[in-house]
Design a protein that fits this description.
The protein is mainly beta. It has no helices and six strands. The chain is about 0% helix and about 20% strand.
Length: about 110
């Protein structure tokens, strides 16, 4: 028996208007990361060891996004576009940071 629960973040966007950081680290259930519209203050997203993640929607509609931390997401099919000024978190303190090997170089 498999139960699938879908939460549409955009429906409650007003509730998330002041969120500045999202972390989905070590979540084995997330397969798709939707667009985060209505989150104008979101500065960072962390996706570490989200092993089932295959798709990240465009993040270009996040004007305040500064960093996307991506590590251990080997099922990811493509890298998302980032808004102007945002960067990949490649801080030397993050041991083993790398784009999934099967993907081309980061834009």
């Amino acid at each position: 028996l498999t139960v699938t629960i879908t939460i549409t973040i955009t429906q409650a966007a007003g509730s998330f208007a002041n969120v500045t950081a999202l972390s989905f680290n070590a979540n084995p259930y997330i397969k798709y990361l939707p667009e985060f519209s209505g989150m104008p203050h979101l500065k960072s997203i962390s996706l570490i060891n989200v092993v089932a993640l295959t798709t990240i929607a465009s993040l270009t509609n996040l004007p305040s996004l500064e960093t996307l931390k991506l590590e251990g997401c080997g099922s990811l099919a493509a890298l998302p576009l980032l808004p102007r000024g945002a960067k990949w978190d490649a801080d030397e303190d993050v041991v083993g940071f790398a784009a999934p090997e099967h993907l081309s170089a980061m834009p």
